[in-house]
Fold:
Amino acid sequence: MEDRRIPQQALEYLTRCLRHAVSNGQYLTPELLEEAIAEYSAEHPQQAIQILH
Structure:
């Protein structure tokens, strides 16, 4: 069975990105979350997060 848990490091990165966005007056949207995930995956290719639609 495939492990689908998101690594702790990725969750911390996404939390920081989303907190920063909210503090700058942005609304949390699926697009904003997808953008943060894409940025994390580009910076950490060994722990890339796959988005399933």
